[in-house]
Automatic annotation (TrEMBL):
InterPro entries: Aldolase_TIM (IPR013785), DUS-like_FMN-bd (IPR035587), DUS_fam (IPR001269), tRNA_hU_synthase_CS (IPR018517). Belongs to the dus family. This is tRNA-dihydrouridine synthase. Residues 318-342 are annotated as: Disordered. The keyword Flavoprotein applies. It holds the Pfam family Dus. The lineage of its organism: Bacteria, Bacillati, Bacillota, Clostridia, Lachnospirales. It comes from Blautia ammoniilytica. Residues 5-306 form the DUS-like FMN-binding domain.
Amino acid sequence: MKDYMAPMEGITNHVYRSAYHRYYHPMDKYFTPFLSAKPDKKLSFKEICEVSPETNEGLHVVPQILANNADDFINTARILRDKYGHKEINLNLGCPSGTVTAKGKGAGFLAFPLKLDRFLEKIYEGLPDMDISIKTRVGFDEEEEWDALFSIYEKYPVKELIIHPRIRQDFYKNQPRLQAYQKAYEKRTLPLCYNGDLFTREDYVQISGQFPDTECYMYGRGLITDPGLVSQIREGSHPDKDRLSAFHEEVYIRYQKLLSGEKNVLFRMKELWSYMGLSFTNYEKYLKKIRKAQHFKEYQAAVSSLFAEQELIFGSKDDTSGENAAGENTSVKNIPGENTWN
């Protein structure tokens, strides 16, 4: 059984991935937040940190590329191969963000199946020595699009097809469309990976029981909310609060070394707490203090109080509403999505 970490801009970067790998059940693969392919692509410092072996030591990292132009995709892939040694890349066909889909990229590319087919033909022909996996939704406007899309994917040597069984218009609402995943599962003409709403061990047990031959799972919002989730699934016990505290401390210290100024560090940590805070009992007032913190001293006091005074829920999926670092509803079912989730 294989476990993957989903990409999330601003959260699952090289700092987070390395700390997670040290303190929790190691993932088989870690997918980077997407790199936008452009003509004459040159990687920024931030992108280099995401894909460089030096900043991802000991991790199997798969760079994810966002593109709808085959030449741009191929050029970016070759940079990742030749300069950074990557043999596998991932195509983002899942991002539902309006700014992305308006350009016909991410899940927006699914609305143009003929163009997508030509694109896939060109990239697989142009990169015969690289493995290309695909992260996809099951349609743009309607689930009925899925049969035609899957037939396109079947034509190519897809390394793995990571399926988030929602259409773009779902964003992260509604239930996963498991009938769509079932169709791909029954055919099994491609290696499949399931992704979507794995918040608790019970969610994993339900999905793995329904699709027992699925050998790969990708975890996103549920894992960021509860970093001990996969440890509980694979090892049978949930890491304790001390482990989470040590994990948090490493992320916090590494951001202080990487970023300049308290404001930038605290912005990153507040993003993380908007998810991770939901793993604690009675978290609301603590997250409010974290959100309002302007300096390290205030932030550290709020975090210390949370760890000292509250307990972990161990990934319980309840409907208790709170506020995240932006003052938004953060019940587990209302957690914002990937790339923001890719």
